[in-house]
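Field: COMPLEX_INPUT
Field: COMPONENT_COUNT = two
Field: RESIDUE_TOTAL = 621
Field: MODE = joint
Values follow.
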Amino acid sequence: MSGEEGSEKRSRGQRFRDGLTPKRVGLYAVLFGMIGFYLAPLESGLMTSIKSTEAFASTTPFAPPGPEGATIEPWLLAWESLQESLFNLRGSLANSLFFALPATLLSATLGSLAAYGLTKVSWRGQILVFALLIAGVFIPYQAVLVPLRQFWSFIDIASMLTGVPVLEPRADLIELSITHTAYGIPICTVLFRAYYQTLDNDMLEAARIDGASITRIYRRIVLPLSVPMFAVTLIYQFTQIWNDLLFALVIVQSSEFFVVTQELNALQGALVQEYNIQMAGAFIAALPTLVVYIVFGKQFAEGVAGGGT
Amino acid sequence: MRTDGGAETESRTWFGLGSRSVDDELLESLPFWLPAALLVGLFVYGAIGWNFLISLTDWSGLGQPDYSNLSFEMYRTMIGDANFLAATRNTFVLLIVFTGLALVVGLVMAILVDQGIRFENTFRTIYLLPMSLSFVVTAIFWSWMYNTSSGGINVTLQALGLDFLAMNWLGDPRFRLAAIIFALMWQFSGYCLIVYLAGLRSIPNEHYEAAKVDGASTVRMYWRVILPQLRASTMSAAVVLMVFALKAFDFIFVVFGTNPGRSADILAVMMYRQAFDATNWAYGSAIAIVLFLMALGVIAPYIYMQYTRGEL
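Field: COMPLEX_OUTPUT
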């Protein structure tokens, strides 16, 4: 976690040893080559997504289309099948937002509270509780899928919400949201705990001596200090939850409420040969996470380094 | 979870002051962690227990499981199932080759990025970009890249005059698993780079200087002096990668559907196919338990090690 600050100041030797020695030229050549490697699938996807069928057949995947072969038609078609119109509340992007945002907020909040309650209490059992939470990060979800399906058929959210507008038809999405909250808690707790361990004891003890309750200490001191960590956790969690397919496959049955990863998978199955529409669809589905990554790349990297996938 | 080798943490407590007893502390901290612990307890540990119970029934098709007659029948079936054995073998291949490859690529990249380069942040951002994408998205990109007649890989190979290397990557059973591993390496090596870079930056500069003074060559220095100090980074990255390899599902599902054929089938996909396609719920649950035990074999030693090092 703390590698991030260190990474700025401690490059090997003095910064930018940029004499144009052959060695440095070779180094940059490799680094740029690797950029090509990491971006190639995206570049070929992007170019393909703006080609007409004829241009698609006549150009190589990495080459841009000529002026007469360029079209935004694939994007419009993909948008049509993923979302239809911007304010279509039953579009798959809307469905994804509907379940991903609450799950992101809830898992981060519960994780922060749990990490606070489990950090530096002298009660010995806290290590065990925390160890069980850590292990939760690494559980192969296959091991809970069948019970999960059973659980959500017994706990029938739809009948609990009978007559409630907006929510009742979205019972599957609510179930998906609760599921992601539960499985997101372990990683959120791990991220917050690593951060809380670095907080200054003296300040908290001083507040304690002044008679502040631990709830008050959390609200007044710890929570405000947690803002940067909330940014990391929220960004990381949002990306993970938005990107997931497996839980949605198991929980969301009605195609009307398919989330975006499900709808994209359906789109690729239906349009096997139409790569240009597939690629446009992939970019549309990835757009929210791409924007988050480009704006908050540093926080995302911190989340990744702190918790793994 | 630490990747920086673990800074010293103080063992003083926040809540434990003066006359307050441990019980008071427990009581006070309870409302904070109990909701999270209950949810995780139910959804993770409760569900795994339930899954084990289901695996002991003979539940399949519609209807509900019958818990009155439990046996290890499904596990016996498994041992005689050639598909299960193939999937297990592929799971191990994926686990080992993917983890090894991603670690090596990540380490080399981290060392290169650590040479005091310009625009370091930009380079890092681009290398990590694939990690922010959904497997559904990357699976669609790579299906296109691997396209036999006009995909990016074969077009590039032909342009380099390497036509004989242009294969039917996803169609030919011989190359499927390799193609999956390569694409997943593409997606995950940026993660390894980030972990290793944090590890490299936590090694004191003097260690580099000392090795330099001793006249060690660069390669020798990294091999002898630096690599051993990256053990903690390697360990935590390897655990994450191996556990991922066990549950890799989304990518393969989007590329091949639920049946990638024997050459690329892995347990995570087979479990889904048995349970949710064929409604062999009990058999799927039994495969899931095997996966869970494999994951446990990876994480239990790791968590125990962290515990003994006082890093929990």
